[in-house]
Amino acid sequence: MRKFPLDFSEEKNKEKLLEILKINVCNSCLGRQWGMIGHGLTNAERGKILRDYASKLTKTELKEPETCELCNNFFKDGINRIVDKIVEKIQGVEFDTFLIGTVVSDELEKKQEALWEKIGVDDVETIKSEINREVGKRIEKLTKKRFNLRNPDITIVIDLNTNAIRTQIKSLYIYGKYQKLVRGIPQTKWICSKCKGKGCIYCKGEGKLYKTSIQEIIEAPLLKVTKSKNSSFHAAGREDVDARNLDWRPFVIELIKPLKRKIKLKDLEKKINKSKKVRVKGLKIIDNGKEIIRKLKTERVDKTYLVDVEFENRIDEKLLKNLKNVTREIIIQKTPLRVIHRRADKIRKRRVKKISYKLIGSRRMQFKIRAESGLYIKELITGDNGRTQPNVSDLINNKVKKLSLDVIKIHSG
Ligand SMILES: [Zn+2]
Ligand SMILES: [Zn+2]
Fold first, then answer.
1. What is d(CA 175, CA 114) in angstroms, rounded to the nearest whole number?
2. 191 CA to centre of ligand 2 in angstroms
3. For the chain, which end, N or C, has fewer CB atoms within 10 Å of the first or last residue's CB respectively?
4. CATH code for 172-298?
5. pLDDT single digits (tens) 144-192
């Protein structure tokens, strides 16, 4: 690496220096034109050394001008105003790491370009890069937080066109596992599709179709302590609204724009579990939220269900041996009638790995079924007007009156 101060026996350095000094530039703007050489000095310090050298060259005492024609004294005063504004803006936001980004004004960009036209771009640093670094250093000093390029808790954007400060707060991702102990609640908030959440006759003014959901029960105390705007809920699959989930299902809840990130998850776990509808365990903050969500969404694991079925007619025990067929053949399912209004009409093929059953009345049976991820269990039992083949109802020649469903095992790993 070349060192600073420069070797001024190099003619091109001398020429470049004198060319720059034809306009009034501050030491920062002067030093920045060799900003990529060496390190340990600020551009202002480089500029000072260069100006002293130029004074010797020209045998006149060159002083730093009152007003810099390039940055308009941004590095002398403007920067302090910006830093004050940032500190005010991020008050009340809890973070450990931050990043600064700058949108340079069009005017500044043009002036920088014009200078580079004359002196070339060898060794120069951009004004944007210097602003980010210098503001970053001051914010580090004032807040005792760390500058971090990769995955900062907060990104602060300085827009020099409008002098506005914008912040982007990283979501807080919490991983955990849940059980659903009651029937009749969906996994995520179910916004009314007719009014998009505003409230209408269809949803009785609620804006949503169910009073609560697993997401809402879990998010309530989390939104409160983190002062987040809202949440987004991602789980490894989902059970039907009317099904329970008695095994632990992994999920990630994403808290959006949290003002607090340091929270005691043990206490929150207890609060959530008071609901009696949903239980959670193993809550922990994770850094690689997006990655884990992708994994949860793509992992395909078998599930075992317990299905309680009431048939319309007496069960003919002679036909029960036919049930072996569901594990011998691939189950072919057209999109169920109950969801066809919101899903494409497609064909799904899945296997049933195991089926066992128990008679618990002349018309009632309990099935235990292990199936591949994605198999529509209800339709496997009812046949869905022939849209699922083979199916239990046809095999034992009996129509289903009603059924209830529990997920009892999620076969992860
Ligand atoms: Zn300047
Ligand atoms: Zn509505």
1. 52
2. 8
3. C
4. 3.30.70.2510
5. 999 988 889 999 999 999 999 999 999 999 999 999 999 999 999 999 9
